[in-house]
Amino acid sequence: MSAPKPRQEKTITLEMLQKMFQNIFEKTDWNMAGDMLWGYFFTNNEPAALEKARDLLVAQGYRYVNIYQLDEEDPNAPRPWWLHVEKEETHTPASLDARNDELYLFAYEQSLDSYDGMDIGPIPEQDE
Question: Which residues form the Regulator of ribonuclease activity B domain (predicted)?
Answer without folding.
Answer: 18-119
